[in-house]
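Fold this complex.
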Amino acid sequence: MTVGIVVVSHSRALADAAVELARQMLPGRELVVEVAAGTEDGGLGTDAMAVSAAIEAADGGEGTVVLMDLGSAVLSAETALEFLPDDVRERTTLSAAPLVEGLVGAVVVAAGGATREQVAAEAGRGLAPKEAQLR
Amino acid sequence: MSTEELQAWLRRFAELVHEHKDELTALDSAIGDADHGANLDRGMTAVLAALEEAPPADAAALLKKTGATLVSKVGGASGPLYGTLFLRMAGADTFPAALRAGYEGVLARGKAEPGDKTMVDALGPACDALDAGRSVAEAAQAAAEGRDATVPLVARKGRASYLGERSAGHADPGATSTALLLQAAAETLS
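Structure:
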């Protein structure tokens, strides 16, 4: 079982595209990536209950790492923790990494069987290649 | 706090949000992402529908249902913030104690401080007034003054903070809707 990944965004299209970009790194490999993005009516926004459901769906026992865009995505992810069962909440990490770069790093190591701490650390290093290139 | 009183408060707040929807959105378009009025109106409409569909057994259940609906249906940052306010209110026996608990929840969730040009600037003065033994009407007045005091401030939280100095000169939309929340309380709670 691998660590699950959850993407929280204001925009369903943005989340789906970020996941598509990240999955390019995983040809032929399985990884659970759940998305909680946009409002019910297809608009821009986040829903803490949807985030909570996505975390539960992505958690296969090894925990989850949650990547998010900005503003209410962060507040909704934090609020979502309140609605999780204790055991699931304890193995959920909210990552401060930038969404796209963090997600790409996270999926690669998660699919390789890394622990939740390793996946979160890799996401957190997501900006390093860009920073090195532009130095 | 009786269930009936709280329901009257929430209904009046929903009415005020609906009446002021365009004003809240206009404030938010000046300094944010132009969705506060529409978001809060959608959230409070969903709250009234949820309470209608399954009437809560007591005040705590009503406040929890309200909070859980807002965190899900609002869409913007005001969802988790107002949602947390109501969720934390559920544990208290009196309105002043409940609002104080809610305020502390908002502070913890949003990590804003007084003077950051947020709903905290209206909610904090209202809690202080109630804790000093003043009436709900006086607390609403304090919230309105807190809202007015956000006009010259530079935003330090949320989307408005990206604007820096340009965020000064407009009332904060969150402080404005919080003043409506207290106005509704003054009209419905004893």
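The radius of gyration of chain B is 15 Å.
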